[in-house]
Amino acid sequence: MPVRARRRWHAAAMSRAICFFALWIVLMPSAKPVDLLFGAIAATLATMASLRLLAPQAGHLRFVALLSLAPHFLWQSVLAGLDVARRAFSPRMPMAPGFVECKVDFPRGLTRNTFAAITSLVPGSVPCGETRDALVYHCLDVRLPNVEQLKREEHLFARALIPGDTPAQEDRDG
What we know:
Elements: H1 3-27, H2 33-53, E1 60-61, H3 63-89, E2 98-103, H4 110-119, E3 125-130, E4 134-139, H5 146-159, E5 161-162, H6 167-173
Antiparallel strand pairs: 1-5, 2-4, 3-4
Helix pairs in contact: 1-2
């Protein structure tokens, strides 16, 4: 295993173990030594399972940039709720439900799935499938500029990502 890949694996294992142990502490009503011991065992097993089920990937998030997007996505969630409520209470409101495909630059996997989850907050649309290079959305009104808004969201989300090295580059550098 190349040096960079090994470092990435160790960093992922440590951060996941810390998160699982912190979750254990939050869920436990006490901090007795026996509870902490079982928490450490549970966190170790959960970390091993998570590394086996979801191997560490190259690249990472710019955490501060992702946090700066939180108000935007929270606002989108509020707008989505208001839009659906408005449509539900106003049956005369014109709608043209249907499906649109939004080509995305994210590869299949965790990044694309995270983007799909975030864009489920976009008013009037919900991700419902994918093709090789696109996400499929069900929209309440396909006459609206749904794809353009989704592309703006993709651009915002991409700013919070730092792409990793390609495997060939890792082999050369590691």
